[in-house]
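Quick one, tokens below. Sequence please?
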């Protein structure tokens, strides 16, 4: 019996090499980390320098790991990660006032 997915050195491989399970895994991990960034903005009142350091160390490091592999996937799959990047920018630039206007896009 052949396994559906194999995780090796933090990268999830599958038979057809679409890397969709890897991208979904990254999205779930980074969404949890975005909550940390969001709390740092609204609860702790962190400045932009601190938020940028937090973003680079917690979220960006996960997105950059093995980016050569998942950059070869379909653009529609990469939109899963674009949402993470966009939300992080909203938090970093403190654009939460404008967020409901663009939430449907």
């Amino acid at each position: 019996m052949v396994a559906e997915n194999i995780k090796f050195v933090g990268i999830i491989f599958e038979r057809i090499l679409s890397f969709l399970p890897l991208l979904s895994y990254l999205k779930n991990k980074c969404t949890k980390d975005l909550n940390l960034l969001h709390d740092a903005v609204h609860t702790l009142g962190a400045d932009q320098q601190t938020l940028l350091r937090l973003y680079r160390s917690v979220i960006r490091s996960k997105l950059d790991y093995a980016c050569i592999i998942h950059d070869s996937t379909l653009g529609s799959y990469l939109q899963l990660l674009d949402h993470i990047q966009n939300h992080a920018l909203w938090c970093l630039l403190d654009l939460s006032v404008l967020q409901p206007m663009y939430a449907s896009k």
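The chain has five helices and two strands. The longest helix spans residues 20-42.
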